[in-house]
Amino acid sequence: MSRRRFPLEFWGLLIRTVIIYFVVFLIMRFMGKREIGKLSVFDLVISVMIAEIAVIVLEDMERPLWSGIMPMAVLLIIQLGSAFMTMKSRKLRLLFDGKPSVIIEDGKLNSDVMRKQRYNLDDLMLQLRENKISAVSDVEFAILETSGKLSVIPKSNADCPEDEAGSGGNEETGAINMEAKRVIPPKFRFEILPIPLIMDGKVQDENLEKLEKTRFWLKNVLQDEGVTDFKDVFLCTIDHKGKLFIDLNDRKPRF
Predict the structure, then answer these.
(1) Which one of 83, 173, 182, 254 is least enclosed by Cβ atoms within 10 Å?
(2) Domains 99-155 and 158-254 share a fold
(3) Which option is the CATH number for 99-155: 3.10.20.600, 2.40.40.10, 3.30.240.20, 2.30.38.10?
(4) Best CA proximity match to 103, nearest among 71, 164, 149
């Protein structure tokens, strides 16, 4: 009797495995490439839950397939819904993904931030080597992203005031650095680089306050670039050199 049942159980498990595989594959595809390239805490929870549900359905042959497919479909709807809402609201993005943390600033370690993020020196040295950095003093900014990746911006000799004074200065480089001094306050703490000033047509007043600037200043800057309305701007950022990037809605990016 057991010999007759074994082939049926075997083929039943095989069919269930194939079905669950394609269900999970389609769900991950619908969730988007963001899930493959970056796992935030929310993304990780969704992925783990889908994997656990798939295992439960495969282990319990008496459980109907729909009892596993339906919860996975619900998780897909939750993920797609949250992704749509976070696209529309930066506050929700910060709530789900958190904020990047500055680990190194001007060649100096922020030990308090490292303790808060439970980020040890071995992890730091590993990721600096991956970015081909041999010394902490060579780093202008090192930012721990919400995905756990370390973004490193090395120091540039062109940005050093000593080089400008000693070499007589490059006029274009000097103009950029002078612009940076006017735009970026000396004690400004970079949380994200580049700093968004406008996102999805909405002015980021918090970042303007950190830069000690106003909407009037931003409007004048945009008018110099031929932009008259904040809503026409999809993204406007400024980097640590004071250089602006402007990307208009349904138009080519402008620098």
Answers:
(1) 182
(2) yes
(3) 3.30.240.20
(4) 149
Q: Quick count: other Cβ atoms within 10 Å of Cβ 246?
A: 21
Considering only CA atoms, which of 228, 218, 216, 226 is closest in space to residue 196?
218
* CA–CA gap between residue 240 and residue 141 (Å, rounded): 10
Whether 241 contacts 159, CB under 8 Å: yes
Residue 195, judged by CB atoms within 10 A of its CB (0-12, 13-18, 19+), counts as buried
Spatial strand order of the sheet with 195-199 comes to 202-203, 195-199, 233-238, 244-248, 253-254
* Terminal alpha carbon distance of the chain: 76
Cα(147)–Cα(145) distance, rounded to whole angstroms?
5
Residues 196-226: pLDDT tens digits? 888 878 888 888 888 888 899 999 989 888 8
Average pLDDT of the chain to the nearest whole number: 76
| CATH superfamily of the domain spanning 158-254 | bsu07140 like domains (3.30.240.20)
Q: What is the pLDDT of residues 146-178, one digit of tens each?
A: 777 888 888 875 344 444 444 444 444 444 444
SS3 108: strand
Instruction: Give domain limits for the chain.
Output: 2-89, 99-155, 158-254
Instruction: Kindly list the strands in the beta sheet with 139-144, ordered across the sheet, starting from the edge strand earlier in the chain.
Output: 108-109, 101-105, 139-144, 150-154
Q: How far apart are CA 46 and CA 66, in angstroms?
A: 19
